[in-house]
Amino acid sequence: MKYKLLFLGAGVLFLFFFISCSSGGKKNVPERHRQVSEETLIKTNQYLVEKDEERIRQFIRRHGWHMQKTGTGLWYEIYHHGTGPRVTSGKKVTILYTVRLLDGTLVYSSEESGPKVFTAGHGGVVSGLEQGILLLRGGDKARFIFPPLLAYGVPGDHKKIPPRSVIIYDLEVTGVK
Q: What are the per-10-residue average pLDDT scores of the chain (177 residues)?
């Protein structure tokens, strides 16, 4: 419930900022009001990022995972090391995967959709997966935790992943070409 209220509050602040900036331009909004709005949005965003971080850390502790964190906020653990070629930008990668929400809800899997095939470093997947796949090699099995910033962000994916969701990718690299 607390997170719903935070999300609602952030949405209201965003809407207020959007309306104030788009209704007649910035010239109608006193500078001190724009600064307060921008500062409030920045602080709200920082607070939400900190809360996401806290939830992720607690989740990792509860599950006894030994994950590392990159500078961008991507959490990862390679729990089986393969011997295949390293994934580099431009390589075509094939993975088997599951995608879950932090509460354990399964939202997507290769079992239902088939293997995911994409070219590393060329977009087409969430930025967390784009970053994480470059840490792997053929045959690796890994899990990634993506905060909303590296997943589907504020809107979610408009299908199965709700707004501002932390997601967990568990995957196996089955091909690197």
A: 45 46 55 73 93 97 97 97 98 98 97 97 95 98 97 96 97 98
Residue type, 150: L
User: In 10 A of CB 5, how many CB atoms?
Assistant: 9
Q: Do 73 and 53 fall within a single domain?
A: no
Alpha helices in the chain (DSSP H): 2-22, 31-63, 110-113, 127-133
Burial class of 46 by CB neighbour count within 10 A (0 to 12, 13 to 18, 19+): exposed
Size of the chain in residues: 177
Residue ranges making up the domain that contains 50: 2-63
Find out whether 44 and 9 touch, Cβ atoms under 8 Å: yes
How many domains is the chain built from? Answer: 2
Residue 53, SS3?
helix
Cα 155–Cα 164–Cα 170 angle in degrees, nearest 5: 110
The CA–CA distances, whole Å, from 16 to 10, 20, 69 equal: 10, 6, 34
Question: What are the Cα distances from residue 30, in Å, to 26, 37, 41, 74, 151?
Answer: 8, 11, 17, 39, 35
pLDDT at position 175: 98
Residues 84 and 59 occupy one common structural domain: no
